[in-house]
Protein: Mediator of RNA polymerase II transcription subunit 17
Organism: Nothobranchius furzeri
Amino acid sequence: MSGGPAVRISIESSCEKQVQEVGLDGLETYVPPLSMSQNLAKLAQRIDFSQGSDSEENGVDSEPRDGEWGKQEPEEEEVKFQPSLWPWDSVRNNLRSSLTEMCVLYDVLSVVKEKKYMALDPVSQDPTAGKTPQVFQLMSKKKSLATAAQLLLKGAEKLSKSVAENQENRRQRDFNTELLRLRSQWKLRKVGDKILGDLSYRSAGSLFPHHGTFEVIKNTDIDLDKKIPEDYCPLDVQIPSDLEGSAYIKVSIQKQSPDIGDLGTVNLFRRPQKNKPGTPWHIKLEAAQNVLLCKEIFAQLSREAVQIKSQIPHIVVKNQIISQPFPGLQLSISLCHCTGDKKINRSSPEKPKPDDHLYVLEHNLHQMIREFHKQQLSSVVMPHPASAPFGHKRLRLAGPMAYDKAEISSLQQSEGLLEKIIKQAKHIFLRSRTARTIDCLASRIEDPQIQAHWSNINDVYESSVKVLITSHGYEQICKSIQLQLNIGVEQIRVVHRDGRAITLSHQEQELQDFLLSQVPRLRL
């Protein structure tokens, strides 16, 4: 095969003798076989002394040796045709040449290994010729340092560019990603080629007619070639103009205003606006939804103020509802809405007014409107009889055990937001007046001492305080008066230690006279 090394095959001669001549009579004359010595001499002549032991492994070296083997064939023929030569002459010549080569190799190794035959002395050089001046050394070091510094600067520049690109890619949030986040938090729908969202509380049970729809748009106001600001967002929302800005419900109890025309929307918004953390669209939508809820609360209160019939009618002026819980006092509920368009003139600063806003009542308004939503959402029509309303069994009974008209009307009546908030405002005002009266008497009268212990567990319509009147001395435990004051909506119920109960009105003077009447009893 041409691709691999040559493979040698040993072929033995057949045992038959070679035919030398065939006579006319057909008699064959055979060549006499070689003797043992002749056969040994023939084989010795075929030995190739130039071939190594690893000739079979190196196929490259085998090709020229094959040529040598072919060259030795005419020598073999010459041996055959020169019977006068000694048969071992070629073997002797090859052994002699091999011995000569071995002797030469031994001499070369001896000369190289042992120094007595040949010595190698170093050539003397000029010491000044090999030294480089110090200036050139410094210049070469400076050049190498400059090259290294340049490489380091290039690497640092590439690293800074990659970090800047990563930061910009992180800031360049995709529009679809932001839209997915918006969809996970707000209700969205696609109308044509627009994406609209819902801000209203209709899904929570609200009946407010405002649509509360906002539109999702893509923010294209920024130039991508310039540096992107940190607060950049690829998504923006457009909300209705009447829901922009911020709003809250202000509830306050103040003295009755002599002129109703002075009331209105002037300088009602005094609450400082705080920057909330989060995405711009989320902050904007939360503020718009809060404005919508405040408008719903004020609309509900305005509708109830017009519908409720009371001895002193409620007044609705612009964005303010005025009620009179007690004589000489008025409860003001205002819708404070700031759009941020009006600029505040600070050239003539006004005197800061005390904050009379009742945050508890504002919180209660939000809580009550959410309870109203929950009631509307859970008012599922249950299976009921076809001929009678679904409810208590006595509503469908006839005879003396059935409900009368007054009882049925009392069951169907339910208080609105305005009535509840007025009752809570009455209770808060009566409680604050009671606390002020007790503190005033305690600071004015030194003996006996008046102590008030307010209960932490109260109701929106009722709270309690324990008043302890004691005198100085070793008989302090014996000479003490303990009163329990249960403060309601329009009256105060006083319970003595022995269980006697007295009802007081909301008048401050009546409570003060009652407490002063207890002091002589203690002295006696």
